[in-house]
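Writing this down once: the sequence line spells out the residues, with the fold written below as integer tokens. I am pasting one below:
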Amino acid sequence: MHIYTKIKILLIHLQITYIDFLLYELFDVHRQMEPDVFEHFANLQSYLGRIESLPSIAEYMKSDRFIAKPITAGKGLN
């Protein structure tokens, strides 16, 4: 993955795929649990930033509809 992120494309293809969204979600959960988890991984920070800077994603994340937390729902997670 390091080679791909070096040339500023997404994970597998030159255009975004559903795999990119699945990985973004997985990485984002880890980042929410431990904010510094990718501190030493500039390529992963860059990858997350590229997903978040996609116009439709950025617009959604700034909207009232976006809910960052809770990550999961359940009775014991209040």
